Amino acid sequence: MCCSLRFVLVSIFTLLQPIITLRIATSLAWIEHTPQPYAIKNFYKGSTAATLTSGGVANLASNPQDFELAANAETQGLKQYANHKNVRLIYIVCEVAYRIVADKRKGITKLADLKGKKIGTFSGTSASVFVHNMMATVGVKDSEYTIKSGNVCMKAPCASDTLPSQLKAGSIDAFGIWEPAVELGADAIGSNAILFQNASIYREVYSLYSTTDALNNPAKRKDIVEFVRALNKTLDVFANKPKENGVYDYVAKEVGMDAPVVESVWVDHKWSGTWGNDLIDFIVEEDKYLAGTDKRSATSRKDLEKFLDRSIIDEL
Ligand SMILES: *[C@@H]1O[C@H](CO)[C@@H](O)[C@H](O)[C@H]1NC(C)=O
Ligand SMILES: *[C@@H]1O[C@H](CO)[C@@H](O)[C@H](O)[C@H]1NC(C)=O
């Protein structure tokens, strides 16, 4: 015998309940995601609770019945949009000008010197698009350097399979990825580090996504607007008053970093919210590149214009 009648009845009742939360799929590991828990804790006033689940835009695209929102880099958004035209980018949480850190002892004094070198990154992510874009601007083709994989590190001391440790050990010559791994890699080799960054060549556009399914449901839409409103209040705190509000400590605790490292990479994170007219050109170009690496056809500009949906921002 396992269950009391009361337990069975409660269980059945629970199963029959309609879904009563705003469900958000997001990686819980990175700095970029932290405005979401902060917004839920401090500002969100929706009619239902908001819950964060580990995941991303792929979960939203494949299971629109299980999630109302997701957060991820634009790279993952574009990959999903190619096959799921119901996905919409509705808000920008954060834009991050990624950096490449290289070891000067390997004869690297400018970006073009990375030709023929071993560069650490994650294939298939925003980081590999970043490395590609950076190298392309100095005329170095993908085939003219070697991509090496490795793990990221959030806090020193970094394990030996992480990119900062591989740079220190000399098994890679450089690496490019999201923070704080680059900061920790630069720390690991001290004055031998040289950094490359250019936000107009590549920046991660870490965005909030929804689906037309959720956006066309009036009850869900109301809570989505409330959540974005809460995020917008959060971005004001993150951008303008982080120190006064203990944000460096908050973020450090959320993602397992040291607060001084959070503070030193803060400048690389732009808490944008909305976007300018240049974003469409940026994603059209990026989608062309991703279409090649993913062996699919590029999404048309007309469809990408639909992907960028300002209608929730307009309701704030
Ligand atoms: C960034 O890249 C753009 C486009 O290639 C270039 O015009 C600009 O000078 C670069 N900025 C820096 C600081 O290198
Ligand atoms: C968000 O809040 C700021 C104030 O911090 C405001 O200027 C802005 O227009 C709001 N809306 C969006 C979409 O960012």
Automatic annotation (TrEMBL):
Top-level taxon of origin: Eukaryota
Alphabetical list of Pfam families matching this protein: NMT1 (PF09084)
Keyword entries, A-Z: Signal
Signal peptide residues on this chain, from the entry's feature table: 1-21
Residue span, SsuA/THI5-like domain: 60-244
Name of the protein in its database record: SsuA/THI5-like domain-containing protein
The species this protein was found in: Ophiobolus disseminans
